[in-house]
Amino acid sequence: MHNTKKVAKWEIKRNLKNKTFIIGMFLTPILIVGFMLLGDLFGGSDDDNQETTNVFINDQLAIFSELKQTVESANIPWDLQQTDLTEEEVSNALADTEDTAYLFLNEQNLNQGVVPAYTSEDIAPYFMDQVQVVTGPLQALQIQELGLTEDEKNTLTQGIQIKEITTEELQAQNQTTSETNPMERIVPGAFAGFIMLSIVFTGMAIFQSASQEKKDKIAEIILSSVTPADLMQGKILGYFVLGLLQAVLSISIVLPVVAWKFDLTILEYLLVPELFLYIGIAILGYLLFASIFVGVGATMADVSTAGNFQGMVMMLPFLPFIFIGPVLSDPNGLMAQIGTYIPFTSPGVLLLRLTNLEQWPWMEIGISLIILLLSVWFFMKLAGKIFKIGILMYGKNATPAEIWKWIRA
Amino acid sequence: MGTVLTVKDLGKAFKERKIISNISFEVNQGEIMAILGPNGAGKSTTIRNIMGIMYPDEGTITFHHRQGETIPRNKIGYLPEERGLYKNVNVMDILLYLAELKDYPLDRAKQRALTYLKKFDLEGKEKVNVEELSKGMGQKVQFIASIIHEPELLILDEPFSGLDPVSQELFKQEIYQLAKNGTSILLSSHQMNLVEEMADRLFMIHRGQKVIYGKMEDVKTEYANFKCTIRGFNNKAALEQLPDINRLEQEGDQSILYLNKDVHPAKWLQQLPADLQIQELTIDRVSLHEIFIDIATDRNLLQEEGDVYA
């Protein structure tokens, strides 16, 4: 452990003195912020161009001003106008128009309870939802005409709702008062995901570092002072700290921007007990990939001469991305469960699932964590074997057959 | 003068092929012990086994004045045959890192680094990036790295390869100095003239087996017989008639007569016939270089000498 720390310290110092590394470290969060603001730029212009619908109302109930008020207060992009057009003339008027609708409000329709809305061929996709707002004032008018007392009116307008209360909500109600805010899970989950990505990506530099050691032919000198295990662990530890540094730096730049832009009190959501589990998962994920990278790095003379095998291994951290779609659409579905049990995807998939699930499948989490722990242990052992021999094979790439031989040795 | 390192019956095989077998030697305090042998003889393998970079299949390696089974890495300095330095770090940083790995106090390491840099004509280079050093400068830095922590045992695998004569001399003097101050030195090299000059004892290895092991002087008296080089056109048959000739090589006007072991040079010279054409005549001992080449090319000059040391 003594030597491990020395190696780790060296790796940290060496990288922090390297201009390329420092620039990269600052560039990452700046790029994130940049893309966020860039997206905002396009998103903003989208809002401006949101199409307004021309809604013409043939109003025989003298309710237009009330409707206009309702529409404005609901923030619906309608251009409300009165019209004298009859239902017979409507089809002609609608021909060759876009985003136009005609509503006919009269006694007959009110009594029947059905208001016809004629629309042009092109119409905003949410028009039929939006148009429901006019039912409010109409219903009020209907009730008024019945001449009921105030109490009777209120009872009627209140309507009847059916409220769903599941058992765990019942329990939750007993324990805490408000547990419904999804932010409480999403924010720490996203935070842990970000930490994991940062350290895994910084961890990919391990592999660079291991193969560089071969290229510079310094491995044998180092190994005359420390054991291969110390050297390997030192690298893993060193790049872990570098990854954390990267994460802290990124977060301290990105978080204020996010907080300002989305107007969130993020810290409140962030500091919840779940965060510890998330970060634990993130660290396990890092250890898994770091041990794979350090092992693979030791088999390569040079990044540019990496074989297919090595290239494929390098893609492993991107595997969870395959699961993002299926997991989001069904966090308890088959794909999600499969992803939870594959060690390479489980950190990512677990984080994704836990932030999306109301109720945590503790059984699956437990099994998945055990699989993850075992894989970390297994790949560390494996990497140790590969590293010990590979790091001294100067100027040569190892073939998968050779690597297999070392593992069996 | 105690023994620092004992290697006993060392053997190592890769797959079915034996790389080295039955290698036994000792390194004493304050001596320069040389391991010689042609390429692929097993020198570096032997050294890597001593350093714990490889693990021997058989035999033992004992570090004296040392309890326990582990290799006293802090007390050993090692300059491997294939060596390099981290790029894009400065000279002082890398020297201090390597000293730190040996648990050597950093302030003293810094002092020593500066002293040695000055000694090796690298004064003021401590802040220079390793990438900017020439190959020779890099070698010097590596050499400093291997001795910065005042090792008890210094293992140098081909320390002179790629050095110009000036730097070679510098290294040679430094190695002498270290040995004089009590450091035990295990030196592997191809440069026979240097080894002949420097080593107190030598171990010659060929195809993973011991060929010669002993003190330099003993080896020389034992193996390095006299040879007489004559320039001038002479009949080969006539020369072969001379007494005490072990072997004769003739090329153009030059004849080399390898003499038998117990020849007395002055007496032998008296027996030379008067009609011999002599433009030039030298008589000297066969050099280590020639013994080495003989072994490496399997000419077995030594065969006739029997297995006195082998």
From TrEMBL, chain A:
Judging by the UniProt lineage, the source's domain of life is: Bacteria
Subcellular location as annotated: Cell membrane
Residues spanning the membrane: 21-39, 186-207, 236-255, 275-297, 309-328, 360-380
Q: For this UniProt entry, what is the primary localization, expressed as one broad class?
A: membrane
What is the membrane topology listed in the Swiss-Prot or TrEMBL record? Multi-pass membrane protein
Q: Where is the ABC-2 type transporter transmembrane domain?
A: 19-383
Q: Which PANTHER family match?
A: MEMBRANE COMPONENT OF ABC TRANSPORTER YHHJ-RELATED, MULTIDRUG ABC TRANSPORTER PERMEASE YBHS-RELATED
Q: What is the protein's name according to its record?
A: ABC transporter permease
Q: Which organism is it from?
A: Virgibacillus kapii
UniProtKB/TrEMBL annotation, chain B:
Lineage, top-rank taxon, reads: Bacteria
**Residues in ABC transporter domain copies:** 5-232
- Supply the InterPro entries for this chain: AAA+_ATPase, ABC_transporter-like_ATP-bd, ABC_transporter_ATP-binding, DrrA1/2-like_C, P-loop_NTPase
Q: Which UniProt keywords apply?
A: ATP-binding, Nucleotide-binding, Transport
Matching entries from Pfam families are given as:
ABC_tran, DrrA1-3_C
Extract the SUPFAM superfamilies matched here: P-loop containing nucleoside triphosphate hydrolases (SSF52540)
| Keyword check for ATP-binding | yes
Kindly indicate whether the keyword Transport belongs to this entry: yes
Q: Which family does it belong to?
A: Belongs to the ABC transporter superfamily.
PANTHER family per record: ABC TRANSPORTER ATP-BINDING PROTEIN (PTHR42711), ABC TRANSPORTER ATP-BINDING PROTEIN NATA (PTHR42711:SF5)
Name this polypeptide is given: ABC transporter ATP-binding protein
Q: What is the lineage of its organism?
A: Bacteria, Bacillati, Bacillota, Bacilli, Bacillales
